[in-house]
Specification:
The complex is a heterodimer of chains A (86) and B (603). Chain A is mainly α and 86 residues long. In chain A, 69% of the residues lie in helices and 0% in strands. Chain B starts with 9 loop residues before the first helix and ends with a helix. Classes of the chains: A mainly alpha (86), B mainly alpha (603).
Amino acid sequence: MSKQAQHWEKTRGLLMVTLAIWFVFSIGIFLFGAEMNEVTGPFGYPLTYWFTCQGSLGIFVILIFWFANRQEKIDEEFGFSERGDD
Amino acid sequence: MIKGNFIDNLPKVYGIYTGGFLAFIIIMAIAEQMGMSAKVIGICFVAFTVAIYAIIGWLSRTAQADAYYVAGRQVPTVFNGMATAADWMSGASFVAMAGGIYFKGYGYMALLVGWTGGYVLVASLLAPYLRKFGCYTVPDFIGTRYGGNLARLLAVIVLTVASFTYVTAQINATGTIASVALDIPFQYAVYVGLVSILLCSMLGGMRGVTWTQVAQYIVLIIAYLLPVFWISNKIGAGFFPHFMLADEVARIGELEAQYGFVANSKENLAMVPKGLAGITKAHSAVNATPWAFISLALAMMMGTASLPHVMMRYFTTPSVKAARKSVGWSLFFIFLLYSSAPMLATLSKLSLMDPSLPTGIIGKSIADVQAIDWYQNWNQANLMFISDFNGNGTVELNEFFMGGKAVVLATPEIAGLPYVISGLVAAGGMAAAMSTADGLILAIANALSHDLYYKIIDPKAETAKRLVVARVLLVVIGFAGATIAAMEIQGILGSVIWAFDFAMSGLFFPLVLGVWWKRANREGAIAGMALGLISGAGYLIWVRNGGSGFLGITQLTFGIFGSAVSLVAMVVVSLITSEPNAATQKMVDEVRVPSGRTILGKQ
């Protein structure tokens, strides 16, 4: 398999992981919104309420930075990373 | 003081600017103590900030296509993040979001999840690849990837429908704020707002818009966070509200149980001025079905990844790597405001509901409340109303009504903060609406000038002529938007949500599959865009005219239907027609590799 095909395979793998985490915190947990809200979450807020106010939003921020770093590693591994600044 | 290249000095420039703005707030606060009237303070805030944006717009003037369309592709990640956040957070986010959470609770908070979760899709599916492509506009990608003028034209049409729906709402918002702050009629204020918007974008295009949006972000985030922290500390709810309002949320729950949600009769509701609402939903309980919540969140997420004015911000970064990081920074800066909106709603509601707080009005006598200064002001502005429906002489929970905008605009005054904060909030709302309007008008004008005029009508046009066309279109579209805004057809929030649905119906799958599915071809993309937009718009018209809808898809989530049709059409048509030629497939391969020159740069 060519270098480019391998790079793309890894990139696609990372996409799947990223989308899976995204799915859990944007859609998955809200299937159980009513049940989860009975639980006390971080800082004492009801759990579902906390996810809609801060939790999911914060996780998305962290997820994007994590994704960007992983993708950079993949690019470096195959010598596709760009030179210079960011 | 400032030496060398402008880009290298950005932190210093905006540091000085932020310091200057804080000093201006302090000067206004002192002036208020010395007796400056509320009206003059309001005018100073709006006039001063708009003048700064206009100066930045003038300093950024340019005659180069690269600078005009993509700010020379040298905007650093963090600053592009701020600019995107301002581009993204509109008058609706700033003025209407806390109000929506206040009145509708959980069901509305799907928008918070949707308007942030969409950035994960932007970062992972699209932004880095479109940056590698090196296009000036979103239709530029569609036109080159799929080839042919028809695909390009359809992309321009979807972009225009979505962005134009969105921009009228923003011009409406600038008009509302300008008319309150400057005390002029709305019909004229709309054009004052428009001229301010055009001052930022006309001379410098994307470059001007980028640097004004960074300045606007700084104003709007200070204007949003300062009152939230101040009120929280003032009523003793905690010095860092985001982590400390659990008791207050619980207290609202207790008060709701104590007062009870009493339904008003039709005759009583008929007396309430249009647009005002009472508290009828629990603050922190789950009051929507899973599908109602998820479908709205999903529509907003896919819409986010299809809206061209956001996507084109990532064309301005220096590299593909920077584009990815920049999406993270954008969402971080958006998070700062979005995570504060529910806190503002909580503080606002508690201030009014809790009888043990001096600002609480529920349970007080009607006559006393009617005598309060702020009640009279906001009642006159048609944003607040009380009526003694049950005739017992006291204000009940179901007898107090407020406009959604009042949660952000009136809460500082209700909590007894000095007027300078209200002036600051007006400037913040103006910044939020202006920055989004700028991005949208520029997206439409650039698509029409670059894709329709230059690529389709006159491919031999010189740069100077293209930029003249771009600027003329900017003014024409701005005036068309303002004229429609002045008619006040729809509310701000409803039309914003529609814009997301239109964008996802027509563009989401043609963009995503363009990168991720090599087999996608021209015929498929044309079918996907055309059928997606038509079926989405058709569903909206059907439901608006009394249609019952299906699968729980409402007029706010019609994009789910539109994009599903778009996906099916695109896959089926692509598979029954021949696969894209070798050159196109090679192009897709190159897009997937971050290093090397941009695709369009090679031609």
